[in-house]
């Protein structure tokens, strides 16, 4: 999968190792989230870029190629977030990566996980619609996976996102084989004009047969402008 952002490489030295870090585009950082997408106090870092084109996209600012983004290295992000270290340690919190699609920047997240305190819980919000190698790199590091499935029916999924869900299904199998179920939450929305309760229940049954147990069910609420 090709990224639409050019790579910016930074080299950082310390006494023992030399790290080469790639910068990544960030659309926002949100601090002091309480028990949201992770336990305790969390900070959300949202990346620019997504392979999907969801009809009711919640973060459309992550999509345009001409969006002016702040770019940052893992070390710079850690230094910025370390101000909340005491909150993370006291509450069992940490950092949640979202977007956009954070797995497009798995190399960045992998490097970030190497330098932060081990006590920080690193969570991720993802569609899983990326090549499996993006996900495999992070399997040892992620404390909790929040998977935005949309719908397991391929036709419904394609109509809503503009993409196939074949890669999602393969990645779900990989995740189920390597990650305890208590560390996975599957999000299944009821999407106006795209699926219904019966179809969502069919998705739940399919996912249960794959071994998944924890589901977050909700409705997309559209606001008229």
Morphology: globular
Alpha-beta content class: alpha/beta
Count every helix, treating DSSP H or I runs of 4 or more residues as helices: 7
Overall pLDDT metric? 89
Q: End-to-end distance, in Å?
A: 35 Å
Low-confidence stretches: 1-19
Rg, please?
Answer: 18 Å
**Please, what is the oligomeric state?**
single chain
Write down the secondary-structure element order.
Answer: EEEEEHHEHEHEHHEHE
- Give the proportion of residues in helices: 25-40%
Largest sheet: 8 strands, mixed
> How many β strands by DSSP?
10
How are the strands of the largest sheet arranged?
5-3-4-6-7-8-9-10
> β content, as a range?
25-35%
Describe this structure in words.
The chain has 225 residues and is an alpha/beta fold. It has seven helices and ten strands. It has helices spanning 74-81, 85-91, 106-115, 132-136, 154-161, 166-178, 197-209; strands spanning 9-13, 18-22, 24-34, 41-47, 70-72, 94-98, 121-126, 144-148, 184-190, 215-219. The chain has an eight-stranded mixed sheet. Strands 1-2 form a two-stranded antiparallel ribbon. The longest helix has 13 residues, at 166-178. Mean pLDDT is 89; it is low at 1-19.
